[in-house]
Write a structure and sequence with these properties.
Elements: H1 2-63, H2 68-81, E1 85-92, E2 97-99, H3 110-120, E3 125-126, E4 130-131, E5 137-147, E6 150-160, H4 164-169, E7 178-182, E8 188-190, H5 194-199, H6 206-214, E9 219-225, E10 228-237, E11 242-249, H7 250-253, H8 255-301, H9 316-380, H10 386-413, E12 421-423, H11 425-435, H12 437-443, E13 446-450, E14 458-460, H13 462-479, E15 485-493, E16 496-503, H14 510-513, H15 532-542, E17 546-552, E18 556-564
Parallel strand pairs: 13-15
Antiparallel strand pairs: 1-2, 1-6, 3-5, 4-5, 5-6, 7-8, 7-11, 9-10, 10-11, 12-14, 15-16, 16-18, 17-18
Helix pairs in contact: 1-8, 8-9, 9-10, 11-13, 13-15
Main location: membrane
Enzyme class: transferase
Protein name: histidine kinase
Length: 566
């Protein structure tokens, strides 16, 4: 994604720079065309003003009625006010000549004679560019002077073209830009560098000049001088047959554009660098939780299924982490469930083997106990010493205890065989409490039973549940120190019927509570065989129920049995 962002930034910047270049190029061409057209107009205006000045002077001289003194004063005043004319003469048809004071007679030049001759023919005339004694360009001008409808004189003026330089100097084009004028031969008529004008060297070849003259629009070209490029634009002045050229160094023209390009490249590079930094930061932010998750997944792969992946985001990675945690939790539960199932299967298999063996052992031991009991009964009819009587009573007690243990052992060793039928558990519980009523009265124990009137019957084996509840009530009574309280409650929880037996006796220590359902574990010493709670659990499990115990030492015990209603 990041390369595409950088490529997009670079492409956008390139398009903008190219658009800026095209617009700048178009603007430069249009602006320079406007400048050279304005310059050409200024030069045309200069020449038109010079012609109008000569014609206005001719009208003034006609009003002076050709008085020699007045004419000389008018010519001197004109030349003083119009310094662009360095020579002004009034030439009559009879050969007389009036000139400004201090001025010499016109030199015998072909160009001057040509325009004077045209003026005598009634036409205003301007000569081609001529060169004076100082090798500077000039133009001869002459206009006719009429009086009473006749041409009586010709007004001659020599226009020094160096005054056009003032016009060109007023047009500033940067530091290197300049406008100059060429005659048809390519000679400089006006230029900022006076040496070019004085030397008389041609500025451009005839091919370039012809191309400019033949085009109705400004002509553009690029010239190279000493390895440096110059932008040139030329236009033809048809009135004077001159060529006006605009010339400026290319580096100056494109300095602003190049500076913009540099700024654009710098900005693009900075934007790309910023995009790379932001992208790297985003990638690190994106990769960091993945790396953390990868490390934790490796640890989970080593068997630490209890480890949870740290999830701190709410994006797709966070969803993946939470899903992975759910998966590991489910896998952990599945493994635990499989382990418990395997243990139960192994226990069931062991119990099955134990049941087969227990039947035979119990049968043989039971026969032995019966024989011992019969022998003890027979000895009761015989005269015995006091010591013999005590031994006989001890023998009968131990035989009864062993017989009870064998009965409990058979119940535990053989899986319960259910004979289910609809059973009202409150009746079973009341029967259990009634069986313990003599002990309850003797010890002053407070017994209560809270049973919901709408409690439904459950499909169960009444004799087995009687055995389980009897064991629980018996344990609660034995846990009381003197008088105490035993509470039996029934509650309906959805599709389950919960029966709880609670007492306020001595309670069970935590380390004993964890082992209370283990076979042969007892805290009663010889008074117990450790099979009572194991038998209760097997009966409840056979009914698809659960049994839980909550107890704290000195605070009593709460045992809850949950049985499915259906």
């Amino acid at each position: 994604m990041l390369p595409f962002v950088i490529l997009g930034i670079a492409a956008t910047s390139a398009v903008l720079m190219w658009t800026n270049y095209r617009y700048f190029q178009k603007t430069i061409d249009q602006d320079y065309r406007n400048i050279i057209r304005a310059s050409a107009s200024e030069i045309d205006l200069f020449m038109d003003n010079a012609t109008e000045d000569m014609e206005s002077l001719a009208w003034v001289l006609r009003a002076a009625r050709f008085d020699e003194w007045r004419a000389e004063m008018v010519l001197s005043a004109f030349q003083y006010s119009k310094p662009k004319f360095d020579r002004v003469l009034l030439i009559f048809t009879d050969g007389r000549c009036i000139q400004a004071s201090g001025d010499d007679s016109p030199e015998n030049q072909v160009a001057a004679a040509g325009v004077i001759e045209k003026a005598f023919s009634g036409l205003s005339a301007i000569s081609e560019v001529d060169v004076g004694d100082d090798n500077l360009p000039l133009v001869h001008m002459a206009v006719p002077v009429r009086r009473m409808g006749r041409i009586e004189a010709a007004l001659y003026g020599r226009l020094n073209l160096k005054h056009i330089w003032d016009v060109l100097e007023g047009i500033r084009i940067g530091d290197t830009g300049q406008i100059f004028i060429l005659d048809p031969s390519g000679r400089h008529l006006a230029h900022r560098e006076i040496d070019r004008v004085v030397s008389g060297l041609p500025g451009y070849g005839s091919r370039t000049l012809h191309a400019i003259k033949d085009s109705p629009f400004p002509v553009k070209w690029i010239e190279h001088v000493k390895g440096k490029g110059y932008f040139c634009l030329g236009v033809h002045l048809t009135g004077q047959d001159w060529v006006v050229v605009l010339r400026q160094a290319m580096p100056e023209i494109y300095a602003y554009l190049n500076a913009n390009f540099i700024w654009a490249v710098t900005f693009t590079a900075a934007a790309c660098l910023l995009a790379v930094m932001l992208g790297w930061f985003q990638v690190k932010q994106f990769i960091r939780p993945i790396e953390t998750m990868h490390k934790q997944v490796l640890q989970i792969g080593d068997g630490r299924l209890d480890l949870q992946v740290a999830v701190k985001t709410n994006d797709e990675i966070g969803d993946l982490g939470r899903a992975f945690n759910t998966m590991t939790a489910s896998l952990n539960e599945t493994i635990d469930r499989e382990i418990r199932t395997a243990r139960k299967l192994a226990h069931a298999r062991n119990l099955a083997l134990l049941g087969i063996s227990a039947s035979k052992v119990t049968h043989e031991v039971g026969n032995l106990i019966n024989n011992v009991g019969m022998s003890a009964s027979a000895l009761k009819g015989e005269p015995l010493s006091r010591k013999g009587t005590l031994v006989l009573e001890k023998m009968e007690t131990e035989a009864a205890r062993i017989k009870t243990f064998l009965q409990d052992f058979l119940k535990f060793a053989k899986p319960p065989e259910l004979q289910p039928s609809p059973v009202a558990l409150d009746l079973v519980l009341r029967e259990v409490l009634a069986m313990h009523k003599p002990v309850i009265r003797q010890r002053g124990i407070e017994v209560s039973m809270d049973w919901p009137p709408d409690a439904p019957r459950v499909q169960a084996d009444a004799s087995l549940l009687y055995q389980a509840f009897n064991n629980l009530v018996k344990n609660s009574i034995e846990a009381l120190d003197g008088d105490g309280r035993v509470a039996v409650r029934g509650t309906i929880d959805g599709t389950w019927l919960e029966v709880s037996v609670e007492d306020n006796g001595c309670g069970i220590a935590p380390e004993h509570r964890e082992r209370m359902f283990e076979p042969f574990f007892t805290t009663k010493g010889k008074a117990g065989n450790g099979l009572g709670m194991a038998i209760v659990q097997s009966i409840v499990t056979a009914h698809r129920g659960t049994i839980t115990c909550q107890s704290q030492p000195g605070q009593g015990t709460h045992i809850s049995i949950r049985l499915p209603i259906k």
